[in-house]
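ugh finaly. both done.
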Amino acid sequence: MLYIKKDEMIQVMQQGLEKAGCDKERAAKIARIITENTMDGSATHGANRFPRLVDEIKTGVVCLDGKMTKVSGFGGLEVWDGGFGFGVLNADAAMNRAVELAKTHGIGCVSLRHSNHWMRPGRYGWKAAEAGMIGICWSNTSGNMPVWGAKDVRMGNNPIVMAVPSANGPVMVDMAMSQFSNGKMEVAKQKGEQMPMPCGWDEDGELTTDPETVLKTKRLIQTGYWKGSAFAMIMDMACVASSLGMSTPVIDEVKREKGTETGHSQMFIAINCAAVADREQADQLLMEA
């Protein structure tokens, strides 16, 4: 197995981003985030996505001039526009803002529109938990999963994260709305492995454990079957209703035009539980859970 030093990976990626037109400061931060995602065991949302990110910069899908701007706000709720800029930077800033709002209001919620792929979702929930808060975030995507019982691929495999702080470190769930994420199946495909249980349907509508087949048909099994399908739908609706951003069907239209998805709508929530609940007592209860 080939091992690459952290600083070396950061440097190479930073150089690649700068060559694509990104300024040095943002290139350094993006390269560090992607490297850390990879080191945390999420290469599919780290180093493996780097070539795609560079291509999206070159084709203008990721806008180099795109910056987050505040659209509106009321108490602990704010709406921001990502300007079709770097998804990782937008998401990082959005959760930071949600945490700041929660320090004042108890709960902070940032609804973000017109962003791009945020790489590893768990990073942002973990960020909130390390700040001592419950972190919740999710994103919509292009249509890459069928509605339960359907053949056509029109629903987003929308990822969701929930993270809870504790004395022994954050506890986090980072999951997609399919039984196996696309990333997990891509890794299995590269290794020539089958999934441990059915991951979707083949061209004939038969269940299969072959990741390559399911990645081709995009007919993934939803988490909880019809329940996962319903959850994915309501997540998309919540993002759009709060941010007035693009829904999965609209993202699909843009994808057909540009060849790749862009314009994600996302939610970032931080809950300052320490403001109303004793942390020592909470940690004791969590240890007993």
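ok and the 2nd:
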Amino acid sequence: MEILLIEDNPDHAELTQRALADGGTASRVRWVRDGAEALDYLGRRGRWATAPRPGLILLDRRLPTIGGDEVLRRIKADPTLRSIPVVMLTTTDRPEEVRQAYEAGVNSFVTKPVRFQDFVERVRQIQRYWVLTNQLPRVP
């Protein structure tokens, strides 16, 4: 499965990619650093013209250029993208932000733990569920 990681923090991106690589599934991770690049990837524009469609999106909430909430709204408003599960993977746990994300169509909201090992385990749990357990619709 292709996983699109939308994360501006290089350290968080590296940890997430490492956890996914060690997670025991054959997932390929593509990393983009901001909201505009994410939308270009999903719209297959510019250097992303031949980008594969992701089966899962891991989306940080606080992003430069276009924030995670807006990226989420655009994904869920697009009939060709809305079936892709989006997991908001972020440092916040404020109830109003969680509510807003679900109202915008997020499939799961996960807070990044502070401790390294907890973070790695949380990412692996996400991967096990969305890649190994959950059944996703087939896309033509």
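summary for the 2nd one i guess: The chain has a mean pLDDT of 90.
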